[in-house]
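The protein record reproduced below.
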Amino acid sequence: MTPRDETIKVIVNGQKIEFSIQEELTIDRHDIDSEILRQSAHYAWFEVMRERCRAEKVQAEADLDDLTYDLDEEVRSELRAENPKLKLTETAVKNAIRRRQEYRSAYRRIMKLEEYDRLLLSMVKALEQRKEMLKEVSRSRHIELSGLNAEEVDRIKSNLGMSR
């Protein structure tokens, strides 16, 4: 396996998704029609997975906010019990909350979802690039199949901004 053929793993709504960048983006020049037909479905699937990931991240952020609110009073009570004369500052309470394992776990979950979102976004952008490549390959194939001589093909490609 080459570095380009790395398998990407993401988890969206508890569903583990694995895909190979190389396999997803490869274009079979001998079956352009099938490649064109599957492009939109392929793009839509990755975009839907990205939207689900983003929705899950928004929910995880809301859960972290709820957890922070719930822990606030608990942490204040504990700090007062440890030292009743201690003046509680927002910074001290916030730091105590952030040291809690449940807070750290929730925060790490958000960070992981952000990573998954970036990976899925990269794939969506790559599929947009793939769409453009399919257009160029299809256009080139059409010119080649039209029976034009090499000089005419070169002139048309030049006008279209395509190199031979």
Observations:
- The chain has a mean pLDDT of 89.
- Residues 41 and 47 are 10 Å apart (CA to CA).
- The helical segments are 21-25, 32-82, 90-98, 101-145, 150-160.
